[in-house]
Each structure stands twice: as C-alpha cells, then as structure tokens.
Amino acid sequence: MRSDALDFRDADVSAADVVRAIRDPDGWLDCPTPTAVHDTVGLLDRPRTVGPAMLAAAARSRGHDAPVTARLRTLRGALADPIAEVRGLRAARERLATLGADVVARRERVERLGGQVAALRNAGTVDADVMDAHGTAIAALTDAETEVIAATETYERLRREARIVRDERERRLRLADEERRLKRERDAALVAEIRSSYERARRAVPGGSWRDALALARVSRVRAPLVLAGGPFERATRAAACLDAPVVLVAARV
Q1: Residue (of 254, 234, 250, 236) closest to 8 by Cα position
Q2: Phi-psi region at 14: left, alpha or beta (left = phi > 0; alpha = psi -120 to 50)
Q3: pLDDT category, 1, cuts 50, 70, 90?
Q4: From edge to edge, which strands make up the β-sheet containing 226-229?
C-alpha cells in the first residue's frame, strides 16, 4: 500500500523502529531517501524548543544558503585532515642522555689510560697491556661519539617535527574558533531567511506545547516520512496535510 499518511498506532512497532526503517535503504518501509533535515525533524516524539541550529537546518532544506558557507566548508575540510603524530621523541632524548653519559665515562677512561701511558714513557718503560687498553678505549670512545652524533641528529629531527605538529595544533585551534564563529554567522543568516516562513507555519499548526516542533516540521522540506509519536493529530491524513509532508503515526511510549 502506498500512502503519504500511515497509522501504526495499533501495531507493535516503536517510533525508533520506524525511523530506522525509513533511514535504512534496505528497510521494510519503502520510501524516498531521507535528506539531511530528517535528522532534525524526522522524529517528533515530544514538544521541543526550536533553536537557531534547527531553524538553519530547515532553511538549508529549502535551498537557502549563506555567504560564509564556502569558507566554512573549507575550514571543516582542513580540520578533518589528520595531524601527524611524532613518535619516539622521549625515547630519543633518553637515548641521547644515556649515550652522552657513556661518552663522558669513556673519555675519562681514555684520559686515565693516557696518563698511565705518558707516565710509563717518562719512566722509559712500556706496558703492552696498558697500551692496548688505551688504544681500545680510544676506539670505543670514537664509536660512542659517532653514536652521539647520530642520536643528536635523530633527536633534533624529531624535535623539529614535534614543533611543526605543535604549531599545526595551535593553528587548528584558531581554525576551530573561526569555524564556530562562522557557524554562528551562517546560522544567523539562515534563520533570517526562514524566520517569516516559520512564524507563518506556527500559525498554521495546532497550538499548545507541540506548536514549535510541528511548525519546524512544516517549514522544512522533507522527502521521507516524518514519524510522530504522540502529538495533537487524531488522523494521519490530517497530520500529513497540516505538516505538508508524508507522515507515520505511532503510539507514544510512556
């Protein structure tokens, strides 16, 4: 059965069940694909206060736009890009400190053995073990110093990368602030576009606590059915005519 006004109040189905079926392309309810505004007005299960963001969503559904939208889209694209993570900076710093301490110890050993070699030479004697130990110590010091150079280069590279990431995070914070400002500016412009239509819609729907939510639904341009759980309508056909949209009535759950 095809209809823009369905009444499931006597069926064992919840509002959430119907909403899921509407938004699922393979759901059991055959209907047009919901547009973005369905997230705002697709489920009417209680009275609600209509704020600027909701009115802006309704305005967008009717094709309204704001001058800042393009800039806002660009900002959101930039904010969506992942920020690179710098891994290993702490380990590189600790390794450099360890290698530095090792170089100091090896340099002291070279100097100590060098002093022994000089003393032996002054005495006119030679100790092969001391000479070998001195040569080995010099070679080990050279290797350790080479490791320090490489570790220093790695650490400095990671520091530069971390600084770039930190600067990027600070830039993202500024962009996020601008995004919030532009969003408020965009919503204000969209609300101004739709305000008069929304006020006319408020006069066209039943009064009472549901008025604002129903007016928002009426002023929005929807394709997929609106799901009403409760509300002032006795018949689905009356709800569809009033809201100018396809409607599914379901029982309100207490």
Answers
A1: 250
A2: beta
A3: low
A4: 5-7, 247-250, 226-229, 43-44
